[in-house]
Amino acid sequence: MRIGVVGYGTGGRHFHVPFIQAARGVELAGIVARAPATVERAKSDLPGVSIYPSLTAMLDAGVDAVTIRTPPQTRRALVLEAIAAGVPVIADKPFAPDAAIGRELDAAAKAKGVVLSVFHNRRLDADVQTLRKVLDGGRLGAIWRIHSRFDLDDPNTLEAGPFGGLLRDVGSHLVDQILWLLGRATSVYALLDVVDRPEGPTDAGFVLALQHESGVRSHLSCSKLNHLAVREFRAYGEAGSYVSSGTDVQAQAIFAGRRPADDLAGWGFEKPELWGTLRTAAGNERIPSEQGRYHDYYEAFAEAVREGGRRR
Q1: What is the pLDDT of residue 311?
Q2: List of residues 6+ apart from 148 with CB closer than 8 A
Q3: What digits encode the pLDDT tens for the residues 281-302?
């Protein structure tokens, strides 16, 4: 499957292209970039890969699918253009600026009969995959609640204004992860830490409390301006607890210049000294890290397109 990437900023360069290149049965078909500096960077990083000035030009040249990585306020028109051309689409998160536009995009894809997906790659984080294995193993018994905390000391990347905010940014990942782990939510309680920015009021931190259909509760929190850097899961069940305090393994590797295609077998594992701990009546046990594999997202997307249906 030949996939083109629209947008070659931090997201396209670091979180899409390397994982397309690592995925089986998938090929990078081209990049849409317009700013001269971005075009030169793409040419330097990706010799031999076609660079297009617009999505229209890329579609005219021919691709099997596209990933739209532009800012949310520009993404709607691009997603609709790809759908109208009958080309399957991956829309980066946040999927849409609001629910109405999200429903509009979903309806357009269904009417055209093309696959439309959201880039929720963080289901494939090492810590989430490890927690999923612990939950599936049943050793915690009936689950009472799960806490997910992701604090970032990264004030310069706070996206401000009506289309920004931390809840739309990191929050979309944390919510997706917990819904994937625990199922649908029946109620949500939210607290937002709002700061004034020239672009407008912006949430720079949040705490969410979700009640799930299963009866399990979850608590999600995130911050960017408080000079904290913590990634933690806590799971409580009738038979014990599981706690992991790890790192953002794949992102750290990417920004250090490593690429999954260079060492697929060794990619995406948390260091042993940071493995989570399962505590039950039988004692304490360190749980080895599962592998983080963002490239699996692209393999699953390609399979969903081939099968003409959805894939979990």
Answers
A1: 52
A2: 174, 177, 178, 218, 219, 220, 221, 232, 233
A3: 999 999 999 999 999 999 999 9
CATH class of 2-121+296-307: alpha beta
Three-class SS state of 292:
coil
Q: Compute how many other C-beta atoms are within 10 angstroms of the C-beta atom of residue 23.
A: 25
Tens of pLDDT along 87-145? 999 999 888 888 999 999 999 999 999 999 999 999 999 999 999 999 999 999 999 99
Radius of gyration (C-alpha) of the chain in whole angstroms:
20
126-291: CATH class: alpha beta
Report how far residue 23's alpha carbon sits from residue 280's, in angstroms, rounded to the nearest whole number. Answer: 38
38, 64 Cβ separation under 8 angstroms: no
| Alpha-carbon torsion angle 58, 61, 65, 67, nearest 10 | -10
Strand ranges (DSSP E) for the chain?
2-6, 27-32, 51-52, 65-68, 89-91, 116-118, 143-151, 185-197, 200-212, 217-223, 230-237, 240-246, 276-280, 283-287
Which tokens in the block code for residue 266? 């060794």
| 35-53 residue pLDDT tens | 999 999 999 999 999 999 9
* CATH 3.30.360.10 location in the chain: 126-291
Q: Cite the residue boundaries of each domain of the chain with CATH code 3.40.50.720.
A: 2-121+296-307
Whole-Å CA distances, 218 to 147, 224, 246: 6, 21, 19
